[in-house]
Amino acid sequence: MRRQAASCVLVLMEVRLDGTKELIALAEGLRESAESWADLLRDCRRRGMRDPELVVGDGAMGLWKALVEVFPAARHQRCRVHKARNVTNALPKSAQLGATKALREICNAEDRAHAEKAIEAFAKTYCTKWPKAVSKITEDQEELLMFYDFPAEHWIHLRTTNPIESTFSTVEFRTKVTRGAGRPAATLAMVFKLVESAQTRWRAVTGAHLVALIRAGARFERGVLVERPEPLAA
Q1: What does the pLDDT look like over 66-84, one tens digit per residue?
Q2: pTM for this one?
Q3: Which ranges in 47-140 belong to alpha helices (H)?
Q4: 164-175 burial: b if 16+ Cβ within 10 Å, else e
Q5: Which of 123, 193, 215, 217 has the most CB atoms at less than 10 Å from its CB?
Q6: Which are the contacts of 140, defined by CB distance < 8 A and separation ≥ 6?
Q7: Rounded distance between C-alpha atoms, residue 92 and residue 148, angstroms
């Protein structure tokens, strides 16, 4: 008998033009369901949301297919923490320490070119014995390195989903205290209240003044501004 997928809370947060972060959507759904995510994204679009410049998330979600349908102009960035976990889980313990170091060299490289060389080195080292682990990197290479197209000041924010992950540690703790999440409506209400409280402590992104430039179409190379958007006609 096939196990039925458990529902969860789907969460979206955004970085505003002033660099601050805020919660924009919560809903019950299936994590790997494209339709669950599409419903949430369609609701955001109905409320006036435009295509995001970049969306960061775990690779094993229905979010990515939903984005193609609802916000096709959005670029995709895989969370490096989730990716590293998936790669090391595909390796024996004896190889995990070295692989973890190699993965850090990929995501902490000084620019895209150096990151691509680090991926080549990783593949050369591990592809013979553990091709499955290597494919988890090479097949998602573009999405892993997309953050390099943005200001260097923002890289630390764009490589992971840490703001959501750290906030939900509070949610998990509260769930343990209450011995369960309860009814879906009650769970959503609890999550909303906890996240609403947490977002007052979220720090604005570094280089907040650059967010508006990105939204206006500025182009960056090696993390540095190379092309400003054309000024609007009077």
Answers
A1: 999 999 999 999 999 999 9
A2: 0.86
A3: 63-70, 80-89, 93-107, 112-126, 131-138
A4: beebbeebeeeb
A5: 123
A6: 59, 78, 83
A7: 31
Better-predicted residue by pLDDT, 71 or 201: 71
Task: State how far the Cα of 196 lies from the Cα of 211, in Å rounded to an integer.
Answer: 23
**Mean pLDDT in residue range 13-22:** 94
Spatial separation of the C-alpha atoms in residues 95 and 133, rounded to whole Å: 11
Instruction: Please give the Cα distance from 154 to 147 (Å, whole number).
Output: 8
Burial 178-217 (b: 16+ CB within 10 A, else e): eeebeeeeebeebbeebbeebeeebeebebbebbebbeee
User: What's the CA gap between 113 and 105, in Å, rounded?
Assistant: 12
> What's the sign of the alpha-carbon dihedral 181, 33, 86, 199?
negative
Residue partners of 7: CB distance under 8 A and separation at least 6 = 28, 29, 30, 184
The CA–CA distances, whole Å, from 89 to 97, 130, 177 equal: 12, 11, 30
**Quick one: what percent of the chain has pLDDT higher than 90?**
68
Backbone phi, psi, residue 215, to 5°: -65, -30
Confidence band for 198, pLDDT divided at 50, 70 and 90:
confident
Q: Which residue has the higher pLDDT, 197 or 125?
A: 125
Alpha-carbon gap, residue 129 to 198, rounded angstroms? 44
161 burial via Cβ count (<10 Å: 0-12, 13-18, 19+): buried
- Residue 190 token pair: 């609890």
